[in-house]
Structures are given as structure tokens and as C-alpha cells.
Design brief:
The chain is an alpha/beta fold. It has helices at about 15-35, 65-75, 90-100, 115, 165-175, 180-190, 200-210, 240-255, 260-275, 280-285, and strands spanning about 40-45, 50, 55, 65, 80-85, 105-110, 120-135, 155, 175-180, 195-200, 215-220, 225-235, 290. It is built from 10 helices and 13 strands. Strands 1, 5, 6, 7, 8, 9, 10, 11, 12 and 13 form a 10-stranded mixed beta sheet that branches. The protein has a 3-stranded antiparallel beta sheet with strand order 2-3-4, with helices on both faces. The termini are far apart.
Amino acid sequence: MGAPPRFHRDSRTPRRLAGLALALLLSATSASAASIGVCDTLNVTGNPEYPPFLWRDRDNPELLIGVAVRLLEIALEPENIKVESRYVGPWSRAQVEAQLGRIDMLTGAFITEERQTYMDYIKPPMMVMPNVIFVKKGKAFPMSSWLDLKNRHGDTLINNSFGQEFDEFAERQLNIEEVRSIEFAFERLLLGRTDYVIYELYQGYAIGEVRGFKGEIEHLPTPISSEGLYYTVSKKSPCHNQELIDFLNKRLRELVDKKAPESLVERYMTLWRKQATALDISEVSSLRMKKSRFSK
């Protein structure tokens, strides 16, 4: 009998090699995410009334879309980490979800001492937002300092912040009602039930444009504050770790320096206009108000 072949061919070898190749591929895919010690998917949420940075997708209402989501996706692309942006309720609810660790990140928040107790902030901010006083057209009043808001009634969104300093002043000195929907706040303004609405400049006019009342409101020229809009990571998220924070800090700096947020604004403003529909007054009227932490 002749000598056995030097290289014995095993019929199972191709299958084994294929299995090994698949395992290596999967390992390589997950290794990228593992290299910064995080999950391969981040669940995020935020303020659903914040166009063009964030709003509820009309075609899929369980999702949030906008500049803030797309910019985060771009930031995470080198690590093959996916972003799932979920609608969990109004802005106040989104913050609770982050506090409890049921959501990994918020896609846009101002810095406050309270929020820093349960979230880490990614720096730099994606953009700086001017916060202004909106009034009914023709009802503007002089305002050179926050004190000029005393003896007037204002509205804003539940748990919205306009910077630590203004928040503390408003709690001590001002009469501000917090409502569930910013659209409801503007409706109250137009009906004469409040003197002013505090909100971000661009978002206020964006909502007014598509809801048909942009021409009925104006803003006072002096912003009450200008605050950076930041991504945050919940400290209770299973995906929270310093490697992720350091990576996002670096990536966001690169993208901000390249003006990436600004380059996305017009694209998503166009999409917001396309998706937005006329305000359902019956829905707005059914919204319930919550007693404000600012009320005297």
C-alpha cells in the first residue's frame, strides 16, 4: 500500500474555514465597538419639539429625527456603533428616562447642576442656542434685564432649562407656568392668556412657520441667555464609560470645527417643513398644564 498523502483533505475543512472566517468577521465588527468599551447600539432620545435638531418622525412616530441624531450617527461611524433614536414622551419624560438609565443618551441638553448629577456631558456643544422672549406681535415691551419680566406672566416647556443662572433667578423672582407642549404655550400667548413665552429662537420660529402663526409673534431683541446644546450620557446607562465619553469628545470637536452641524441644518429644516402639518387645536386644548417650579 502506498504512503498516505502528505496533506490529507478533510471534506469538512471548507466548512470549518467558512465558520472561522465568519467568526473573525463578527469579531472584527464587535471589536471596534469593544475598543471603546461600549454597546454596539446606543438608545437615545430628547426634546421632540426641537426642530430642526430633533422632532418626532411623522412617517414613524416611534422615532426622533433631526440634525442632532444625524450628527451623532456621523460621530459614531468610525466605531460601527448604531444610533436608535426613540420617542419616549415629552422633554420632561426624556430627562426622567436618562436619569433612570433606561436611555443611554440625550441628543441635546443645556448644562445644569441637577442634570450633571445623573449625566456626563460631551464637549464641546454641537451649537450655541439663543434663548429669547416671544410675545404676541405688537405687544413687545422694553427689556434690558431679567428684572423687566417681573409682574408679568410667562410660559415655557416643562423642565426646560435656560441656563443655571437664569433658572435660579426665575425660580426666585418670576411667575412662569410650565406646560407640556411648546405649541400649547404659543396658543396661550396668541389667546392673551400669558404675556410671553420663553423658548429657543430658531426652534420657536420653526414651529411658528409650519403651524401658521410665525407672522403673529415676535421676539424681544435681547436674549435672556445663550447656552450650548450638548449631548449627554446617562451615568446609569450600561453603555456609560470613560472611553465612550473621550471618543465622543474628540469626534465632536472634529465635527464642530468642520461646521458639520451647520451644514445639516438646512437639510433637516426642509425635511421638518415637509413633514409638519397644521396644528390640531383640539389636541392642543386637551393638553394639561403642570404647576411651574418657577411660580411664586
